[in-house]
Amino acid sequence: MKSIILLTLSTLFSAVAFAQTSSPAGPTKVDEKVNLVAAKTEVASAKAEVTTSKTNLTAAESELAAAQATLDAAIAQKADKVTIAAAKANLATAKEDVKAARKNIKVAREVRLTAKEEVKDIKKEIRQTKHDMVKHHATRVR
C-alpha cells in the first residue's frame, strides 16, 4: 500500500513537472509591453540626443567662424605676435570642437539606429511568442 501511494505521488509530481516544462514559459504580456515602451523611450531619447548634437555642431561652427574672423582681423590690423598666436590657438580649439561635434552626431545616430533595431527585435519576439503560444495551444487541443 505504501509503495502504491509513493508511486502515485511520484507520477503526480512528474506530471506537474512535465506540464511546467512543456508549456512555453515566455515573458508575459505586461513584460513585453514594458520592454517595448522602454525601447521606444530609448529611441525618443536618442532622437533628442541627435538634435542636441546637431545644435552643438551649429554652435561650434559659429565659434569657428568667429575665431577665423578674429584671426583675420588681427592679421589685417597687424597686431602683435602674442595676439595673433592667441587667435590661432582659438581657431585650432574651435576646429577641434567642430570635429568633436561631428563625431557626437555620428555616435548619436548610431545609438538611435541601435535603439530602433531593438524595438524591431522586441516586436518580432512578441509576434514569435504569440505564434508559439497559438501553435502550442493547437497542439494541446488535438
TrEMBL record:
Keywords from the named record: Coiled coil, Signal
Signal sequence, start to end: 1-19
Protein's name in the database: Uncharacterized protein
Superkingdom of origin organism: Bacteria
Organismal lineage: Bacteria, Pseudomonadati, Bacteroidota, Sphingobacteriia, Sphingobacteriales
Coiled coil: 57-132
SUPFAM superfamilies: Outer membrane efflux proteins (OEP)
